[in-house]
Amino acid sequence: MFSKIASQLRKTNAYTLQDLMHTVRGSYTPAINTELLTEVYNVKQWIEPHIAGTFGGHSKPHNFRFRRVNGKVKMNYRKWSTLPWKPVRKNDAEDSDDEMNEADESDGLVCLKTIPSLDEIPEWVIPSLEKLDVDAVRKHVPNSYGHRLPDYAKASWRDFFDNIKKYEQVPEEASTWPLKEIVDYCNNRRKSPPEVNVTGQTEERVEKLAAIIEEDNTHVTIGKQGKRQPRHVETVVDFSSLAAGSFVAVYCPDYTEVPQIGKVVSRDEETFNIHWYSGKWDSVWSPCYVTQGRKKQPWVDQQVLASAILWDFNLTAGRKLKAKIKNILKAKYASLVVQ
Questions:
Q1: What are the residue boundaries of the structural domains of the chain, listed by start?
Q2: Closest Cα partner for 316 from 287, 338, 284, 339?
Q3: Cis before residue 122, ω within 30 degrees of 0?
Q4: What's the rounded Cα separation, in Å, for the pair 250 and 307?
Q5: Which of 21, 53, 91, 96 is the most buried (most CB within 10 A)?
Q6: In sequence order, what are the beta bridge partners of 295?
Q7: How many CA atoms lie within 13 Å of 172's alpha carbon, on the beta-carbon side?
Q8: C-alpha–C-alpha distance, residues 122 and 45, integer Å
Q9: pLDDT tens, 98-154?
Q10: Parallel, antiparallel, or unpaired for β 260-267 and 247-250?
Q11: Residue burial 9-43, b: 16+ Cβ < 10 Å; e: rest
Q12: How many CA atoms within 13 Å lie on the side-chain side of 45?
């Protein structure tokens, strides 16, 4: 989603906050709902007294799981979806290097020592403009960008600065708590689950998925017996030649356009950093950049090694895909992209 927003902003001028919201809405299908939040609940203040302890290392894992175990909410984590959940169970801890506190018991980490009441509505976060040098920004916008701004944008910025104090105002107290409404809604759905209306299209997709799951791709060979190769073969992929400076083609389901090509910036045992390139099957390929402040920086993402489908190839002198590489990639993407 964020790559789509970035792509739309590269070709669309967003002079005001309203322009930005409009651009974000139109950058994705189905359209993204954008709203300007003027009040934010102080959830930190509300939940802090109930937290079991200081969290550490939680920026590294990519997957988290929360479950209710014996009346307590416990958390498990793992770096990748193919790895087992941590912490390990006590039964398995003897064969593992991972250590667990006894307070964690055997099914995860306890996040909350007590449960906050949903009847206690959090207060509002009190907005403050102290860290924003309003006068400096008021001068900077017209002086640096005034000659580029259309009249409506100039008027919008004038109105913003003239009424900026209103952003420090919040209602006296919150009268509703959306979290309680969500919990009540979920409880009601459990009691009376809605009827599922399966359309013809949905039924067809389910049948295709079931066929894929039930498809038997096993094929045993002994010597020359059963020489035919299976359609899908589990192989161990050697990523040793995927090195910094080489071109790589990847498959990221989050990005709808293919091919997805870039240059390897760096790598480790599980991931690599890719500097994205933009182009089409038959067009010139150019490195992508993003604007940070007044400087352009290479657009670099981190990908898992398993997302790489072809690497260690070069473009032509005209910075296009070679015919052989193009044919290989088309075949690979055709086998990966779900129609």
A1: 1-36, 52-110, 247-336
A2: 284
A3: no
A4: 5
A5: 21
A6: 292
A7: 0
A8: 8
A9: 444 443 445 788 888 888 888 889 999 888 888 888 888 888 887 787 778 888 988
A10: antiparallel
A11: beeeeebbeebebebbeebeeeeeeeeeeeeebee
A12: 10
